[in-house]
Specification:
It is built from 10 helices and no strands. It is mainly alpha-helical and 255 residues long. It has one domain. It comes from Cellulomonas dongxiuzhuiae.
Length: 255
């Protein structure tokens, strides 16, 4: 007599499911990927050229702020703007609910989505670095930990955007992304030092993830000029953990 015993899923199975889901997501969005890359390129180049027109011939430190700010803006806008818009649209049309019926853990589904959006953000970031160097003629001193730092920034931005899109009503989340574009471009210390902002806004950014993201990318691209404060790294990691937890809880509740 033969008996069948169910085996619990292993970590290898979970990793394989996550990678397969990520591959499926990339294929599902393949028709939009070229447009996403074009939008990122436009965002990076427009940021560099636009700020260059505003400041004219900047001093070396200002030039470094502008050159390192362009790739940071690209990473942040993909996570905080594009991710909520796409996830919100998927919720409205019902495709997100259908995808959650697949026999895979919700955590694997979440991680695969974040992996896809993290990878999508990297080409625009690289082109932003190139555009900044060419426009402002700066010499970068890239830190050895720049690549994992970039992945952390991209993952955090995507996690916050994903959590926002799953916790808030879709229409509200998509409207909020429109405000975030102006906040990131104009009212965040990404392409200029925080000292130029009012004191209350400086205090707010000490607890928000945008300034730590900019500091990490800036220090990774120009380590001889800028440093990453330990407090900012803690704030950034905390936002990443809280956003991942919030998105995971929201996905489980919306079974």
């Amino acid at each position: 007599m033969t008996t069948l015993t169910a085996t619990a899923p292993t970590r290898t199975d979970g990793l394989r499911q996550t990678l397969l889901l990520a591959q499926w997501q990339l294929r599902r969005q393949s028709q939009y990927l070229p447009l996403m890359v074009v939008v990122q390129v436009f965002m990076a180049v427009a940021t560099v050229v636009g700020y260059g027109l505003l400041v004219g011939d900047p001093d070396p430190v200002t030039a470094l702020f502008l050159a390192t700010g362009a790739p940071t803006i690209t990473l942040i806008t993909v996570g905080l703007v594009m991710v909520p818009q796409m996830v919100g649209q998927a919720r409205i049309e019902g495709s997100l609910d259908w995808m959650r019926t697949l026999p895979v853990p919700r955590v694997a589904f979440l991680l695969s989505d974040l992996l896809v959006w993290t990878l999508i953000a990297l080409p625009g970031m690289a082109l932003g670095v190139l555009a900044g160097v060419l426009r402002f003629d700066v010499d970068l001193s890239i830190a050895p930990w720049f690549l994992p730092a970039t992945l952390l920034v991209s993952l955090t931005a995507a996690a916050v955007g994903y959590a926002m899109a799953t916790v808030l009503p879709p229409q509200l989340a998509m409207l909020l992304t429109q405000a975030l574009v102006f906040i990131v471009l104009l009212f965040s210390p990404v392409s200029y030092p925080a000292e130029r902002m009012p004191a209350w806004l400086q205090t707010a950014h000490e607890w928000l993830p945008i300034e730590p993201m900019a500091q990490l990318v800036r220090a990774g691209l120009a380590q001889e000029t800028f440093a990453m404060p330990a407090r900012s790294l803690v704030v950034l990691v905390t936002w990443a953990v809280v956003a991942l937890a919030g998105a995971a809880v929201a996905l489980r509740r919306r079974a």
